[in-house]
Amino acid sequence: MRMDRLFVPAVEQVFTEIDRKNEELLAARAFDDREVRASVRGRRPTGPGTEQRIRATLRTVLASAQRELVVTCNAAELAKLGSGSMRGWQPSGRLRVGVDRQWADLHRSGR
Questions:
Q1: Vertex 84, ends 82 and 89: CA angle to 5°?
Q2: Alpha carbon 22 to chain centroid distance?
């Protein structure tokens, strides 16, 4: 699809399709037939946080296109999307303790 023809309904349709595929994937996992379950083995549903990142990427690309006057409206900015987790990666508690110890050791030694 050309960028200048990308409007809010088209962006929302992308996320509707992602949600539909997620539902199909989860339904196949719950199915009694082994072959159906095997057909989705190793596939993971797209979570709300990933959907938010996809939307953020679209917003960034369309903002650039808007600055270059390729598009007049940033459709991804206006599209409605459910809330998702936007938390960044955080180390596990055990790793964090190890990092804190290393930092404390370096601090004590004066390095």
A1: 165
A2: 13
> In sequence order, which residues have a C-beta less than 8 Å from that of residue 61 and are 6 or more positions away?
none
Pairwise CA distance, residues 48 & 38, whole Å:
25
Closest listed residue to residue 75, CA positions, set 91, 89, 86, 60: 60
Q: pLDDT per residue over 89-106, tens digit each?
A: 444 444 444 455 555 666
User: How many residues comprise the chain?
Assistant: 111
Give the predicted TM-score (pTM) of the model.
Answer: 0.67
Please write the tens of the pLDDT for every residue from 5-53: 889 999 999 999 999 999 999 999 998 999 999 999 999 999 998 999 9
| Cβ partners under 8 Å of residue 26, min gap 6 | 45
User: Taking a C-beta distance cutoff of 8 angstroms, is the pair 34, 42 a contact?
Assistant: no
